[in-house]
């Protein structure tokens, strides 16, 4: 039972954060800090629009969520799947529970994130800006 405390703790923290974003609209000024990268450079980081995307999802508006940050929307099911695998491995007491992600997938994720970051900041990728 002790092995599942980490996945359960993360689930509780993520659930609390999601509840906060659901209840406090990130589109309203003054509730959340501005993105420091965007403030300093005027460019969008891969996470810009992510809070608004999560808020839109919690309000039942997936189209708006995709408009704010499609990368975050697409990655949410992937993260949930990986969390579920980690929780299952922990529950089963497997020694490899902490190694649920193949390093190749991590590199692929980082590569996609960098491509998304670049494309959303060039003229032909304006549709990806929040």
TrEMBL record:
InterPro entries associated with the record = DUF2752
Segments traversing the membrane: 68-88, 100-119
Q: Which UniProt keywords apply?
A: Membrane, Transmembrane, Transmembrane helix
User: What are the leading ranks of the lineage?
Assistant: Bacteria, Bacillati, Actinomycetota, Actinomycetes, Streptosporangiales
What is any Pfam family matched here? DUF2752
For this entry, the protein name equals DUF2752 domain-containing protein
Looking at the keywords, is Membrane present?
yes
């Amino acid at each position: 039972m002790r092995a599942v405390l980490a996945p359960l703790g993360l689930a509780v923290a993520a659930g609390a954060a999601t509840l906060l974003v659901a209840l406090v609209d990130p589109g309203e000024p003054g509730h959340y800090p501005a993105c420091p990268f965007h403030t300093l450079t005027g460019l969008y980081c891969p996470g810009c629009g992510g809070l608004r995307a999560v808020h839109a999802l919690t309000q039942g508006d997936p189209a708006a969520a995709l408009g704010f940050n499609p990368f975050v929307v697409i990655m949410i099911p992937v993260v949930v799947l990986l969390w579920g695998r980690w929780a299952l491995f922990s529950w089963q007491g497997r020694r490899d529970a902490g190694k649920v992600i193949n390093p190749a997938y991590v590199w692929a994720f980082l590569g996609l994130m960098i491509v998304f970051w670049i494309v959303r900041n060039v003229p032909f990728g304006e549709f990806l800006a929040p």
